[in-house]
Design brief:
The complex is a heterodimer. Chain A is mainly alpha-helical. Chain A has helices spanning about 10-105, 110-130, 130-170, 170-180, 185-200, 210-219. In chain A, helix 3 runs antiparallel to helix 4 (about 170-180). The longest helix of chain A is centred in the N-terminal third of the chain and has 95 residues, at about 10-105. Chain A is elongated and about 125 Å long. In chain B, about 45% of the residues lie in helices and about 20% in strands. Classes of the chains: A mainly alpha, B alpha/beta.
Chain lengths: ~220, ~120
């Protein structure tokens, strides 16, 4: 067939190029169409972020203030343990002193009084045993302390990342990058695992009974 | 009750004093105290232990690590170990059994319970 009678699409590579151009124009049109559809959403999103920024700044400042107080709270808890421990020791000293005096008194009394004195001594020893509460309470306080420390560390790390966003953010791209890093699945899982490990309850309330323990040892 | 030395390990001075007191009332006077697993391992080297009583939650070296280390040592492999702790979950007890602990008491304990457990272990 003479060259003159060929359609543009039959002109080998020229026809392909024309086809590609049409396809590209079609894609660009689709892109702009999507852009038109998404623009209202992006406008809303930016308006929302703009409204949110003052609130976030206020929350950030409040958290900073609260977090600054956490080490003081932690120190107070440690002091409480030291104080109760010293007080418990004083009580124990007194109880042992009374027991000693009763033992000396036993030598000077008859059988009837001796039974009574022995009974008083037993009561004193039982009282001494109940002072175990001090150690148990101290462990619970220590656990609360560890939770406070974990919260403090977690907030500190959050503030660091917020500072990083501020330093690098010329626009939302930088903010998004930092947020993406902070909320990356592996980071999130690591942080959650660390936090859970530190704060997990070491003194739980659903303890098994002594009989159950004995059965476990015998099974 | 026990001729050899009883080593008791607890980071709380209050608990150490209560355990010491309780052991005396049971008739055990040959005792040595330690405030954590690391301290206990050092003390073990200087005694002939008849029994070990240990807490679980302790700084430096906790009871779990301490028992594991003791059981890995040929010399102390068969020394009876009683765990006295606030940890009272079934999982905790199972872990202790796997570690090779011979008896387990949850705090707070009474002297009668402590005496009964010690008797069980040494018999």
């Amino acid at each position: 067939m003479p060259e003159l009678f060929k359609t543009p699409f039959e002109k080998s590579s020229e026809g392909d190029e024309f086809g590609n151009m049409v396809s590209t124009i079609s894609q660009i049109r689709e892109f702009f169409k999507m852009g038109d559809e998404i623009t209202p959403f992006l406008t809303e999103l930016f308006a929302f972020l703009k409204d949110l920024m003052p609130l976030m700044t206020e929350v950030n400042q409040s958290l900073h203030l609260s977090t600054d107080k956490l080490p003081a709270a932690s120190t107070s808890i440690s002091k409480a343990t030291t104080t109760t421990e010293a007080a418990t020791f004083q009580v124990m000293d007194k109880l042992e002193d009374i027991t000693g005096k009763l033992t000396r008194l036993m030598d000077k009394q008859g059988d009837q009084e001796m039974d009574l004195i022995q009974s008083i001594q037993d009561d004193i020893m039982e009282t001494m045993d109940t002072l175990q509460f001090q150690d148990i309470a101290a462990q619970q306080l220590e656990h609360a302390n560890r939770i406070l420390e974990a919260i403090f560390n977690r907030f500190s790390s959050l503030f660091e990342s917020l500072d990083r966003v501020r330093m690098t953010s010329k626009f939302g791209q930088a903010i998004l990058e930092a947020l993406r890093e902070e909320t990356a699945e592996e980071n999130f899982e690591k942080h959650s695992a660390d936090f859970h490990e530190v704060t997990k309850d070491i003194i739980r309330n659903d303890n098994v009974s002594q009989d159950d323990i004995d059965q476990l040892f015998n099974s | 009750m026990i001729d050899k030395t009883v080593l008791y390990v607890d980071d709380s001075p209050t608990m150490r004093r209560i355990i010491q007191n309780a052991l005396n009332r049971i008739g055990i006077t040959n005792t040595v105290e330690a405030e954590n697993g690391k301290d206990a391992l050092e003390k073990l080297a200087g005694i002939d232990p008849g029994m070990i009583i240990t807490d679980w939650n302790m700084p430096e070296m906790n009871g779990e690590e301490f028992v594991r280390t003791v059981r890995e040592n040929e010399q102390y492999k068969k020394v009876p170990i009683l765990m006295v702790t606030t940890r009272g979950m079934k999982d905790d007890v199972m872990t202790a059994i796997k570690l090779g602990v011979n008896g387990y008491v949850v705090k707070p304990f009474t002297v009668d319970v402590l005496k009964a457990k010690i008797s069980d272990i040494i018999s």
